[in-house]
Protein backbone atom coordinates (compact mmCIF):
# COMPACT_ATOMS: atom_id res chain seq x y z
CA UNK A 1 0.00 0.00 0.00
CA UNK A 2 1.03 3.64 -0.44
CA UNK A 3 1.71 5.63 2.73
CA UNK A 4 3.19 8.99 3.69
CA UNK A 5 5.94 8.51 6.26
CA UNK A 6 8.69 10.34 8.11
CA UNK A 7 12.06 8.74 8.87
CA UNK A 8 12.90 10.98 11.84
CA UNK A 9 11.47 13.88 13.85
CA UNK A 10 11.91 17.47 12.72
CA UNK A 11 10.02 20.54 11.57
CA UNK A 12 11.60 20.46 8.13
CA UNK A 13 11.70 16.69 7.74
CA UNK A 14 9.78 15.85 4.53
CA UNK A 15 6.87 13.45 4.29
CA UNK A 16 7.80 10.72 1.83
CA UNK A 17 5.60 8.38 -0.19
CA UNK A 18 6.53 4.74 0.39
CA UNK A 19 5.20 1.33 -0.56
CA UNK A 20 4.55 -0.68 2.61
CA UNK A 21 2.96 -4.07 3.32
CA UNK A 22 -0.69 -4.19 4.28
CA UNK A 23 -1.04 -4.05 8.09
CA UNK A 24 -1.80 -7.26 9.96
CA UNK A 25 -5.14 -7.61 11.74
CA UNK A 26 -5.77 -9.28 15.08
CA UNK A 27 -8.90 -11.04 16.25
CA UNK A 28 -10.58 -7.77 17.25
CA UNK A 29 -9.19 -5.63 14.43
CA UNK A 30 -10.77 -4.24 11.29
CA UNK A 31 -8.84 -3.60 8.07
CA UNK A 32 -10.17 -0.43 6.45
CA UNK A 33 -9.63 0.81 2.91
CA UNK A 34 -9.11 4.51 3.67
CA UNK A 35 -11.00 6.94 1.44
CA UNK A 36 -10.05 10.15 3.25
CA UNK A 37 -8.07 11.32 6.29
CA UNK A 38 -7.97 14.69 7.99
CA UNK A 39 -5.00 16.56 9.39
CA UNK A 40 -4.88 17.90 12.92
CA UNK A 41 -2.36 19.95 14.94
CA UNK A 42 -1.29 16.76 16.72
CA UNK A 43 0.09 15.54 13.38
CA UNK A 44 2.67 18.27 12.97
CA UNK A 45 3.41 18.18 16.71
CA UNK A 46 4.22 14.48 16.38
CA UNK A 47 6.24 15.16 13.22
CA UNK A 48 8.29 17.84 14.97
CA UNK A 49 8.91 15.63 18.00
CA UNK A 50 7.03 17.89 20.38
CA UNK A 51 5.15 15.04 22.07
CA UNK A 52 8.08 12.60 22.45
CA UNK A 53 7.77 12.98 26.21
CA UNK A 54 4.29 11.44 26.09
CA UNK A 55 4.29 9.35 22.89
CA UNK A 56 7.07 7.19 21.50
CA UNK A 57 7.04 5.88 17.93
CA UNK A 58 9.29 3.77 15.72
CA UNK A 59 10.38 4.81 12.23
CA UNK A 60 9.38 4.87 9.49
CA UNK A 61 6.26 6.45 10.98
CA UNK A 62 2.97 6.87 9.11
CA UNK A 63 1.29 10.05 10.31
CA UNK A 64 -2.44 10.72 10.53
CA UNK A 65 -4.97 10.37 13.34
CA UNK A 66 -8.46 10.06 11.87
CA UNK A 67 -10.13 8.82 8.70
CA UNK A 68 -13.14 7.46 6.86
CA UNK A 69 -13.33 4.49 4.53
CA UNK A 70 -14.77 1.08 3.76
CA UNK A 71 -14.19 -2.13 5.70
CA UNK A 72 -12.05 -4.55 3.67
CA UNK A 73 -11.62 -7.38 6.18
CA UNK A 74 -12.43 -8.16 9.81
CA UNK A 75 -10.76 -10.24 12.50
CA UNK A 76 -12.41 -13.49 13.52
CA UNK A 77 -13.84 -12.09 16.78
CA UNK A 78 -15.28 -8.87 15.30
CA UNK A 79 -19.09 -8.78 15.55
CA UNK A 80 -20.08 -5.17 14.82
CA UNK A 81 -18.59 -4.69 11.35
CA UNK A 82 -18.44 -6.54 8.05
CA UNK A 83 -16.70 -6.00 4.69
CA UNK A 84 -18.36 -3.20 2.75
CA UNK A 85 -19.40 -1.15 5.79
CA UNK A 86 -18.73 2.58 5.47
CA UNK A 87 -16.94 3.67 8.63
CA UNK A 88 -15.05 6.48 10.32
CA UNK A 89 -12.70 6.39 13.26
CA UNK A 90 -9.77 7.58 15.33
CA UNK A 91 -7.16 4.86 16.03
CA UNK A 92 -5.60 4.64 19.46
CA UNK A 93 -2.37 6.56 19.90
CA UNK A 94 -0.17 3.48 19.60
CA UNK A 95 -1.65 2.64 16.18
CA UNK A 96 -1.83 5.93 14.29
CA UNK A 97 -1.18 6.05 10.56
CA UNK A 98 -4.17 7.23 8.53
CA UNK A 99 -2.11 8.86 5.76
CA UNK A 100 -2.10 5.54 3.97
CA UNK A 101 -4.33 3.45 1.74
CA UNK A 102 -5.18 0.99 4.54
CA UNK A 103 -5.22 0.86 8.32
CA UNK A 104 -5.78 -1.88 10.90
CA UNK A 105 -7.86 -0.52 13.76
CA UNK A 106 -9.38 -2.06 16.89
CA UNK A 107 -13.13 -2.46 16.51
CA UNK A 108 -13.77 -0.40 19.68
CA UNK A 109 -12.24 2.65 17.99
CA UNK A 110 -14.51 2.49 14.94
CA UNK A 111 -18.06 3.54 14.07
CA UNK A 112 -20.40 3.36 11.12
CA UNK A 113 -20.04 6.59 9.11
CA UNK A 114 -22.85 9.17 9.25
CA UNK A 115 -25.03 8.34 6.27
CA UNK A 116 -25.53 11.96 5.20
CA UNK A 117 -21.83 12.80 5.00
CA UNK A 118 -19.36 12.24 2.19
CA UNK A 119 -16.14 10.41 2.99
CA UNK A 120 -14.32 13.77 2.90
CA UNK A 121 -16.75 15.27 5.42
CA UNK A 122 -16.76 12.20 7.66
CA UNK A 123 -12.97 12.08 7.81
CA UNK A 124 -12.92 15.60 9.23
CA UNK A 125 -14.87 14.63 12.36
CA UNK A 126 -13.37 11.89 14.57
CA UNK A 127 -10.45 13.62 16.30
CA UNK A 128 -12.00 17.08 16.73
CA UNK A 129 -15.38 15.56 17.51
CA UNK A 130 -14.15 13.16 20.19
CA UNK A 131 -11.82 15.75 21.69
CA UNK A 132 -14.57 18.32 22.02
CA UNK A 133 -17.20 15.85 23.19
CA UNK A 134 -14.90 14.62 25.96
CA UNK A 135 -13.95 18.18 26.91
CA UNK A 136 -17.56 19.37 27.19
CA UNK A 137 -19.19 16.27 28.66
CA UNK A 138 -16.47 14.51 30.66
CA UNK A 139 -14.35 17.41 31.91
CA UNK A 140 -16.28 20.68 31.81
CA UNK A 141 -19.72 19.15 32.42
CA UNK A 142 -21.08 22.00 30.31
CA UNK A 143 -24.69 22.86 31.16
CA UNK A 144 -27.47 24.77 29.44
CA UNK A 145 -27.18 28.48 30.09
CA UNK A 146 -23.51 28.40 31.04
CA UNK A 147 -21.00 30.71 29.36
CA UNK A 148 -18.00 29.30 27.54
CA UNK A 149 -15.12 30.90 25.64
CA UNK A 150 -13.88 28.82 22.70
CA UNK A 151 -10.54 30.03 21.39
CA UNK A 152 -9.85 30.11 17.63
CA UNK A 153 -13.46 29.52 16.62
CA UNK A 154 -12.74 29.42 12.88
CA UNK A 155 -10.22 26.58 13.15
CA UNK A 156 -10.79 22.87 12.73
CA UNK A 157 -11.57 22.32 16.41
CA UNK A 158 -13.36 25.61 16.94
CA UNK A 159 -15.87 25.19 14.14
CA UNK A 160 -17.01 21.89 15.64
CA UNK A 161 -16.88 23.15 19.23
CA UNK A 162 -19.11 26.17 18.61
CA UNK A 163 -21.82 23.97 17.12
CA UNK A 164 -21.65 21.37 19.89
CA UNK A 165 -21.71 24.01 22.65
CA UNK A 166 -24.70 25.78 21.09
CA UNK A 167 -26.47 22.45 20.74
CA UNK A 168 -25.94 21.92 24.46
CA UNK A 169 -27.58 25.29 25.20
CA UNK A 170 -24.47 27.24 26.21
CA UNK A 171 -23.71 30.91 25.57
CA UNK A 172 -20.65 30.93 23.32
CA UNK A 173 -17.97 33.55 22.94
CA UNK A 174 -15.12 32.96 20.55
CA UNK A 175 -12.02 34.62 19.15
CA UNK A 176 -11.53 35.08 15.43
CA UNK A 177 -9.98 37.41 12.85
CA UNK A 178 -11.85 39.51 10.30
CA UNK A 179 -11.59 36.62 7.84
CA UNK A 180 -13.18 34.19 10.27
CA UNK A 181 -15.92 36.49 11.56
CA UNK A 182 -18.72 35.51 9.19
CA UNK A 183 -17.93 31.81 9.55
CA UNK A 184 -18.14 31.72 13.35
CA UNK A 185 -21.21 33.93 13.28
CA UNK A 186 -22.91 31.49 10.90
CA UNK A 187 -22.09 28.63 13.30
CA UNK A 188 -23.97 30.35 16.12
CA UNK A 189 -21.36 32.19 18.19
CA UNK A 190 -23.08 34.68 20.51
CA UNK A 191 -20.09 36.96 21.01
CA UNK A 192 -17.10 37.32 18.69
CA UNK A 193 -13.84 38.95 19.76
CA UNK A 194 -11.50 40.08 17.00
CA UNK A 195 -8.20 38.94 18.48
CA UNK A 196 -6.23 41.26 16.20
CA UNK A 197 -8.00 44.36 17.52
CA UNK A 198 -9.44 43.40 20.90
CA UNK A 199 -8.32 41.72 24.12
CA UNK A 200 -10.74 39.02 25.20
CA UNK A 201 -9.54 39.16 28.82
CA UNK A 202 -10.68 42.81 29.00
CA UNK A 203 -14.10 42.18 27.45
CA UNK A 204 -15.24 38.95 29.10
CA UNK A 205 -15.86 38.07 32.74
CA UNK A 206 -17.86 35.68 34.88
CA UNK A 207 -17.44 32.75 32.50
CA UNK A 208 -18.05 29.16 33.54
CA UNK A 209 -15.64 27.53 31.14
CA UNK A 210 -12.85 28.02 28.61
CA UNK A 211 -11.95 25.58 25.83
CA UNK A 212 -8.35 26.40 24.98
CA UNK A 213 -6.91 25.39 21.62
CA UNK A 214 -3.96 27.80 21.63
CA UNK A 215 -1.93 27.40 24.82
CA UNK A 216 0.71 29.95 25.82
CA UNK A 217 -0.29 33.50 26.65
CA UNK A 218 -3.90 33.03 25.54
CA UNK A 219 -4.28 30.18 28.02
CA UNK A 220 -2.78 32.16 30.89
CA UNK A 221 -5.02 35.16 30.20
CA UNK A 222 -8.06 32.88 30.10
CA UNK A 223 -7.94 32.41 33.87
CA UNK A 224 -8.90 36.10 34.25
CA UNK A 225 -12.33 35.70 32.67
CA UNK A 226 -13.51 32.78 34.80
CA UNK A 227 -15.74 33.09 37.82
CA UNK A 228 -14.65 31.25 40.99
CA UNK A 229 -15.09 27.53 40.38
CA UNK A 230 -14.76 28.00 36.63
CA UNK A 231 -12.93 25.42 34.53
CA UNK A 232 -10.39 25.45 31.71
CA UNK A 233 -9.74 22.47 29.46
CA UNK A 234 -6.79 22.80 27.11
CA UNK A 235 -5.60 20.68 24.21
CA UNK A 236 -2.58 22.92 23.55
CA UNK A 237 -1.35 23.93 26.98
CA UNK A 238 1.13 22.26 29.27
CA UNK A 239 0.17 18.89 30.78
CA UNK A 240 0.22 19.06 34.57
CA UNK A 241 0.77 16.59 37.41
CA UNK A 242 -2.97 15.81 37.53
CA UNK A 243 -2.76 14.68 33.92
CA UNK A 244 0.27 12.56 34.77
CA UNK A 245 -1.64 10.80 37.54
CA UNK A 246 -4.70 10.27 35.36
CA UNK A 247 -2.55 8.76 32.60
CA UNK A 248 -0.60 6.56 34.98
CA UNK A 249 2.76 8.12 34.15
CA UNK A 250 5.80 7.26 36.26
CA UNK A 251 6.76 9.45 39.20
CA UNK A 252 9.70 11.04 37.36
CA UNK A 253 7.48 12.26 34.55
CA UNK A 254 4.86 13.43 37.05
CA UNK A 255 7.48 15.49 38.88
CA UNK A 256 8.67 17.01 35.60
CA UNK A 257 5.10 17.90 34.63
CA UNK A 258 4.53 19.44 38.05
CA UNK A 259 7.57 21.67 37.57
CA UNK A 260 6.88 22.80 33.99
CA UNK A 261 3.20 23.52 34.75
CA UNK A 262 3.78 25.36 38.02
CA UNK A 263 2.66 28.71 36.58
CA UNK A 264 -0.70 27.23 35.58
CA UNK A 265 -1.04 25.63 39.01
CA UNK A 266 -0.40 29.01 40.62
CA UNK A 267 -3.07 30.60 38.41
CA UNK A 268 -5.54 27.91 39.48
CA UNK A 269 -4.93 28.72 43.13
CA UNK A 270 -5.06 32.51 42.83
CA UNK A 271 -8.25 32.51 40.74
CA UNK A 272 -10.07 29.65 42.50
CA UNK A 273 -10.48 27.80 39.20
CA UNK A 274 -9.39 24.46 37.76
CA UNK A 275 -7.20 23.55 34.80
CA UNK A 276 -7.05 20.23 32.99
CA UNK A 277 -5.08 19.08 29.97
CA UNK A 278 -6.99 16.80 27.61
CA UNK A 279 -5.41 13.91 25.75
CA UNK A 280 -8.41 12.53 23.90
CA UNK A 281 -9.18 8.82 24.03
CA UNK A 282 -10.59 6.96 20.99
CA UNK A 283 -14.16 5.73 21.36
CA UNK A 284 -16.36 4.10 18.77
CA UNK A 285 -19.30 4.45 21.17
CA UNK A 286 -18.90 8.24 21.31
CA UNK A 287 -18.50 8.38 17.54
CA UNK A 288 -21.92 6.73 17.34
CA UNK A 289 -23.34 9.56 19.48
CA UNK A 290 -21.74 12.11 17.17
CA UNK A 291 -23.11 10.18 14.19
CA UNK A 292 -26.63 10.82 15.45
CA UNK A 293 -25.95 14.56 15.90
CA UNK A 294 -24.47 14.79 12.41
CA UNK A 295 -27.30 12.86 10.76
CA UNK A 296 -29.81 15.12 12.52
CA UNK A 297 -28.06 18.18 11.05
CA UNK A 298 -27.23 19.60 14.47
CA UNK A 299 -23.54 19.73 13.54
CA UNK A 300 -22.16 20.28 10.05
CA UNK A 301 -18.58 19.66 8.95
CA UNK A 302 -16.57 22.69 7.85
CA UNK A 303 -13.94 21.85 5.24
CA UNK A 304 -11.28 24.34 4.18
CA UNK A 305 -9.12 22.47 1.66
CA UNK A 306 -8.75 18.95 0.24
CA UNK A 307 -5.37 17.61 -0.95
CA UNK A 308 -4.36 14.35 -2.66
CA UNK A 309 -2.19 11.96 -0.63
CA UNK A 310 0.95 12.86 -2.59
CA UNK A 311 0.60 16.48 -1.43
CA UNK A 312 0.16 15.66 2.26
CA UNK A 313 3.35 17.57 3.06
CA UNK A 314 1.94 20.76 1.54
CA UNK A 315 -1.30 20.17 3.42
CA UNK A 316 0.65 19.80 6.68
CA UNK A 317 2.45 23.09 6.04
CA UNK A 318 -0.84 24.83 5.31
CA UNK A 319 -2.38 23.57 8.54
CA UNK A 320 0.71 24.58 10.53
CA UNK A 321 0.47 28.12 9.11
CA UNK A 322 -2.61 28.68 11.27
CA UNK A 323 -4.68 30.19 8.46
CA UNK A 324 -7.04 27.26 7.81
CA UNK A 325 -10.75 27.95 8.32
CA UNK A 326 -12.21 24.57 9.17
CA UNK A 327 -10.57 21.22 8.45
CA UNK A 328 -7.82 20.20 6.02
CA UNK A 329 -8.52 16.78 4.49
CA UNK A 330 -6.46 14.30 2.47
CA UNK A 331 -8.31 12.34 -0.24
CA UNK A 332 -7.09 8.85 -1.14
CA UNK A 333 -9.53 8.28 -4.00
TrEMBL record:
SUPFAM superfamilies per UniProt: GroES-like, NAD(P)-binding Rossmann-fold domains
Domain of life per record: Bacteria
GO MF annotation, one: zinc ion binding
Protein name (record): NADP-dependent oxidoreductase
Organism of this sequence: Paenibacillus pinisoli
InterPro entries, sorted: ADH-like_N, ER, GroES-like_sf, NAD(P)-bd_dom_sf, Quin_OxRdtase/zeta-crystal_CS, YIM1/Zinc_Alcohol_DH_Fams
The Enoyl reductase (ER) domain, residue ranges: 10-330
Alphabetical list of PANTHER family matching this protein: ALCOHOL DEHYDROGENASE RELATED, RETICULON-4-INTERACTING PROTEIN 1, MITOCHONDRIAL
Pfam family membership, one: ADH_zinc_N_2
Keyword set, alphabetical order: Oxidoreductase
Claim: Oxidoreductase is one of the keywords in the record: yes
